[in-house]
Amino acid sequence: MIIDAHSHVHDPLHVHLSALDDAGVDRSVLFPTRPHPERATDLASLRREMSVLDHALGGGGTAGTRGDDGRAAAWRELDEALAAHPDRFLGFGSVRLDRPAAEIAAAVDRDVVARGLHGIGELTPPPDRADLVEPVLQAAHDHGGLPVVVHGFAPTTAADVRTLVGLAVRYPRVPLVIGQLAGTNWMEAIELARTSPNVYLELSTAGLIFAVRLAIRELPSRTLFGSDAPYGDPVVARTTVERVTQPGEVRERVLGGNLAELLHLS
């Protein structure tokens, strides 16, 4: 089974399904989102969509959401996509990080566990504040080790990567997935993940082909094929993995086997 470990709700949804079909992807992890760059028709409209993303990544919300109305719309879109295509999408749900630990735990209960979702994410702590993820890891631990996905590309810093791995050590039952191969901090992420068995690296939007090759070589059982669609493309992401691997067990694990084990799908 081929599983895209990182994607966001598309508008319209059939565009995403078509991209998955083109890539031969069976299922995809789906995160709620407020920005929709796929709606843009020109540079001005793309700037408007990306400004919402910039706000979230700067600490103005998590998983691309902003304000109560934005979060409600994002959740509604996610619920509709999961209801329409339960055979294709694996839902994850985000929580706000700017709340007390008790409220975060309640949000995980209400918005993730009660909805029957597979994990928590994509979390977007402000730069140099990855410590805010700890209450989420505690809640994930309390629910038997729910996977937690954290944004890894800019503005995530090298200090954030170190903080995330340090937190993972404190919550060894919680699989912690660092997205986008930690951006420009990929070498440090690989090095740290080698000694932290519950840290996984998701490979979407990696800018260097040899970064993907090295990550898979060092962590064949803890690297995850992902596209970050609509920011990336499933066909390109799958092709990247296949260019740096040989047919066989390692390729199959990265393209879906590792995540299937993580989510208890097989």
Automatic annotation (TrEMBL):
Signal peptide: none annotated. The keyword Hydrolase applies. Coiled coil: none annotated. SUPFAM superfamilies: Metallo-dependent hydrolases (SSF51556). Keywords: Hydrolase. The keyword NAD does not apply. Residues 71-264 form the Amidohydrolase-related domain. One of its GO terms (molecular function) is hydrolase activity. It comes from the Bacteria. Pfam families: Amidohydro_2. This is TIM-barrel fold metal-dependent hydrolase. It comes from Streptomyces pseudovenezuelae. The lineage of its organism: Bacteria, Bacillati, Actinomycetota, Actinomycetes, Kitasatosporales.
